[in-house]
Amino acid sequence: MNPEMICGPADGPTLLDAAGLASDPKRTERFTRSAYEILAELVGGGAALGWVEPPSPDEVAALLDDIVSAARAGDAALRAAHLDNRLVGLGYWRRYTRQTHRPHADLEKLAVDATVHGRGVGRALTAALIEDARTAGIEVLTLDVRGDNATALRLYRSLGFTEYGRLPDFVAVGEKRYDKVLCMLDLRR
To answer: Which residues contact residue 62 at a Cβ distance below 8 angstroms, ignoring those fewer than 6 apart?
Structure first.
């Protein structure tokens, strides 16, 4: 089996890592375009992915280039989920940059196409990213999630993440305010 590809169950997603995505310029171009479409659609629908307005194609391309470069250096991991040869989700983590925090990483983004919710894509992506973190020697994987995202919170808790803090009304989207929920997974155990 190709080392950058993990095949899920027969009806589950196929996952590629950064090396697999960057191995072919045409694949990279398709991935970048599809990632932009997913992120723009989700953010346009109100998803909590770090943008208030949908990102531009150039912004997504720069972000993905940065993550792929960091992954090559061992400072990040990127996973892309495909169903029927169509990108349906992506996620990544990055090491903390401060020298004293290098054994730790933050799961910064997990985005799944709304048309495939409930098919295990988010779980498969997150599980692969957790395994990538273990392999990279990450000791603690952290993330934050908007407090109203009950589906994401259930997923992360089911995979062993625990809440270690909450900032009430921290996330501002126009006049609305949401809690920022801080979660961690201790991989030292």
So the answer is: none
